[in-house]
Write a structure and sequence with these properties.
It is built from five helices and five strands, in the order βααβαβαββα. Bound molecules: ligand CA2.
Length: about 150
């Protein structure tokens, strides 16, 4: 069951993802951030859940959004973008709020440059989805909704 009846998921996107669909379509596809958020919202609402969508290019703002999720969300779908590979502070914030986290990457980070192969967030995530493009967000929402309400199947 969800805590305090919160059937809400924070969908959090990190730096430069506001540019989605405008550059590098060969790596990230042609969907925009609005498309990503709409896909997550559709997946949630079809299961009776809602989403709060936040994107920031600033590490501290992402940390504040993670802290704020405590009490407003039952889980977090998070593409930390480049901060995945650099930010112990973000990993610590996720650890502190004790919410289930699904880390999502549009691209398969393991097929790319070596510096993208390690993610500090993966160590505190329940699930990691990478390489599925925008579908990864839908899968992440489905996982959280189903794992937080297993009796609903
Ligand atoms: O594959 C992913 O989703 C990434 O998290 C995307 C990050 C990258 O640093 C990670 O290694 C993998 C980059 C997001 C930048 O997004 C852009 C989108 C369009 C144009 C330029 C950047």
């Amino acid at each position: 069951m969800t805590t305090a009846g919160t059937r809400n998921i924070l969908v959090l996107n990190g730096p430069n993802l506001n540019l989605l669909g405008t550059r590098e379509p060969g790596i990230y596809g042609t969907s925009t951030l609005a498309d990503v958020e709409a896909a997550a919202m559709a997946a949630a609402s079809s299961r009776g859940w809602s989403v709060d969508c936040v994107q920031s290019n600033h590490e501290g703002d992402l940390i504040d959004a993670i802290h704020a999720a405590r009490g407003t969300a039952a889980g977090i779908v998070f593409n930390p973008a480049a901060y995945s590979h650099t930010s112990v502070a973000i990993a610590d914030a996720l650890s502190a709020v004790e919410l289930p986290v699904v880390e999502v990457h549009l691209s398969n980070i393991h097929r790319r440059e070596e510096f993208r192969h390690h993610s500090f967030v993966s160590a505190v995530a329940s699930v990691v989805i990478c390489g599925a493009g925008i579908s990864g967000y839908r899968m992440a929402v489905e996982y959280l909704a189903e794992s937080l309400e297993p009796e609903r199947g």
